[in-house]
Structure formats: C-alpha cells, structure tokens
Amino acid sequence: MTLITRRNALVAGAAGSGLALSGCSKVVFGDKLTASSDFQRVLAHAEGWTLASQRFLLAGGALAREYRLSDISPKFKPNGTLYPSGEDYEDAVNENFVTWRLVVDGMVNRPLSLSIADIHALPSRTQITRHDCVEGWSAIGQWTGVPVGLLLKAAGPLPQAKYAVFHCADNLEGEPAKGGMQAPGQYYESLALADAFHPQTIIAHSMNGRPLDVAHGAPLRLRVERQLGYKHAKYVQRVQLIDRLSGLYGGKGGYWEDRGYEWYAGI
Amino acid sequence: MSTAIDTAPDLVRDAPRRRREVIYRHTFLVRLTHWLNALAIVIMIGSGLNIFNAHPHLYWGQKGSELDRPFLSIDDVNGAKGPRGVTTIGPVKLDTTGVLGVSTDHGQVLQKAWPSWLTIPSNQDLADARHWHFFFAWILAINGLVYLLWSLVSRHLQRDLWPTVGDLKSIPRSVLDHIRLKHPTGEAAKRYNVLQRLAYLGLITLVVLMVLTGLTMSPGFDAFAPWLLDLFGGRQSARSIHFLCASGIVAFIVVHLAEVVLAGPVNEVKSMITGRYAVRSDHD
Fold first, then answer.
1. What is the nearest CA distance from B262 to chain A, expressed in angstroms?
2. Within this chain, do residues B62 and B165 fall inside the same structural domain, yes or no?
3. pTM to 2 decimal places
4. What does the CA dihedral B99, A77, A255, B57 come to, rounded to 10 degrees?
C-alpha cells in the first residue's frame, strides 16, 4: 500500500508540473529554448525535411494553380518596400526606366545586359497566380514576363553554378508585422537552379495587363509561384549565378533569410 | 472477480467496501503517441498563435488581405483613453482589451492579437514561431500517422473507439451520466463510453484536418496536390478552417483535462504512464 501511495504521489506531482508547464512556465521554457542556438539548430532540420520532401513530390515540375481573370484581387496588397529610396531610383522612375538594365552575369559563358525594351521583345509568359505572404494573407494577380530559364539559357550557366541570385534596387528597413530583429539592408533573393528554370519562374514586367507600378516592383520583379512572397524580389537589377550563398550579405541567401526566415519558402 | 489475461493480480482487498481491480488499459504505443501528441499540440498552438499575430484576420476563399473583407479580425485601435483591443466577428464588434488586440506583459502594453503568455515564443517573432511550428508539425504528423496505422492494424480503432449501435443508443443516458458527474464502475468502466469514443474520434478528425489544411497553406504542396484547394475552398478558407479546428482542439483539451480531474487524476494520469488502470467494482 505504501508503495502504491508513494507512486501515486509521484505521478500526481508529475501531472501537476505538467499542467504548470503548459501554463505560465511554458513561456519561460519556450523563450529559453528559442534563445539557445543549439536548440535552433535542432529546429532548423525541419527546413531540410520540407525541402527534401517537396523536391521529391515536385520532381515532375508540377505547376502552381493558375486562376481565372475574375479571380484577380481588386486591390493587390503591396508589401515590403513600397517606394525605393535614393536619387538613382527616383531618376529611373522619372525617365520611365529607359536606362534600366537587367544584367545576367556571374558563372555564365555569355553575360547579358538587357534594357526594358529588350525584355519586352523576348518571348513572354502570362500567368494568373496566387501570391502567399509569409504573414498569412494571399492576393491573386496576373503577371507577364520573360521566363528566367530562357535568360539563363541565353547566358549559358557554367557547370559549377548552383544558385541564381536576384539583386534589387531597394533597401528595406524591416516590417513590424514580422516582429523580431530586423536590421535594414539591401534586398536580394536566391533560388536553386531547379526553381529558377521552372516554367512559372519569370521576371515580370507587367501586372494585370499594365506595366508594374512602383509599389509592386517596377520595372522588373521576380515571380516564383511555388514559394512564399518574400522570394518574389522586386526592383530586380541583376541575376548572378554563383556556386555558394555564404559570400553574399548575411550569407543565408536573401534579405529575410538573413533575418531568420527559411531559405526554402515552399511552406 | 475477473480471470481475464490482462487483469493484473494485485487486487486491493483490505477495503471491502471499496474494492478495485487493476486492468491493463493503455498499450505502450498508445501511451507513447499520447504524450508526443500532447507535447506537439501544445507547441503547435503556442507557435500557431504567434504566427496568427503576423496577420490577425481570417477570410473565406482563395485570397484575402486587409484590402478584402475578413470575417474575423483582432485589431488594436487608438481610443481616447489609449489603445483598445477590438475583436470583430462578422457584424459583431467586441472590446477585448487586456486579452485580445491589446494586452500587457510585465507591465508593458503590447498591441498584438494574442497575448504573450499564450504564444511561443512570447515576443512577436514570425521567423522563430515558424521554426517551432514546422519542426513540431513533422512530429505531430509522423506520430499521428504511426498511431492511426497501428490503431487500424491492431483494431484498436474499430474495437475501442468506433461506437457500436448499442453505444449510439446510450447517448442520452451517457449525456445524463456526464452531467451528473457519475462515472462508470465495474465492467462498464473497462471500456470507453460512447461520449469518450465520439470525443476521441473527433480529436483524431480534427488533427487530420489540421495537417491537411496546414499543407493546403503551403504553396509548394499546393502545386503537388491542387485538389486540396478545391476540398477546402481555397487557401484562405484552409487557413480559417485551420484556426477553427485548432479552437476545437483547445475545447477538447479543456474537457479532457476536466474529465481527468473528475474521474480521479492520479489513476487516470498513472494509467497513461504505466498502462495500468484501477477500476472500482459495482458494489461501492
């Protein structure tokens, strides 16, 4: 009997501390673990599992859903930089982007430098797709632009190239909705070549049948439809092919990646 | 006295008017998956509420942002006497200052939807909350899959959880018994009653829906399984259903913990750790 009683007391104690753990001390434990870099390394494994499983499921190059004209959002929420700062961009807006160049360089055989007119002359793709922000909202828009794969083929990637980096004209100061530590910095993004060559990955020059407006990334923005909104770099000036991400900015392959977000944004 | 094989020999005989019999109720796999599930769900709810705080609005359909019409919003507005928390559900506006929209943490007034004490981490950080959420999502899904497959193969689901016709006929009586806080004894206590069966099946359904609506929010998974978008009526509908099912799970947890306390917390918790459950005889 005494043995049972003692065991009961132990069990009751365990149950009681379990309940307390799910209450107020949950916060303390959660915050301590969040601050631990060892624990963050454990959590970071999930990104690898997600990437591997989605690579497997999407090996056939499945397309993101394309919607009807009637599905287009009446007002497409602009996010991130709404108007890039600096005189260079202001001048570019005033002269209607006639001197804007899109450079494709890095690990390529034939670097390219294209004007907006050059890009309009290239074969284009038009798609009505859903934009999913990491914050949780979605908007549907129609995008027209040149497939990134077509530009890369023209430039001829070197065998060692692994990533396409998209360099942008905007300096972003962070976003309150996302919380956390957000130092200002130059916006950039990167994709694995598999995603850069996907048919729906385009450098868009038009939205809903009109040239892009400034809030949505004029004159050129990236669309990478099977990933979250922060991958869709706006104000793109340069596509650089490289073999590793560690040498650029924070080394994680993108503005938000350098601030803690997943590099693979398929979820 | 039972002679069943799973009946443990340690009958308590020293109190004749309070005889009890110890049965082996929960197999090792049920106990293991129960606690892993409990841990994962607590973390999924806490980190999920932190993620919700990045965009505290819900919509129906494929799309939705502040420029469209949400059916649920948790906002902070600046009133004459400082910030107020306002929760809007359809046409109804509620002042929820102190809990939703505006709350305090260590004396500091914070303008966010869910208060710090409910979220993981406690400060608003979408990146960290996503790391927690997607790590434990794998644990929840794999653990749930192991449990479901095992339950089907071992017939635990069919035998112990699926209600019989007799069970369904006993719903009114079972409801009355629960209202009167009358707990079954003897043979009746050795099997799950009908409300227990329905509650556990309901929880399993909710967790399956959580996983499916979670996957529907993934733009990558959508390309693989666009039928999920049709099943749930769009990505924003899936997000709303995700939130509503999570609310259902919270309701389950509240009732589940209350029942554990009412039915005898020591015996109940011990049975989910050791597997052995004491049943009181009919002649109390």
1. 14
2. no
3. 0.91
4. 20
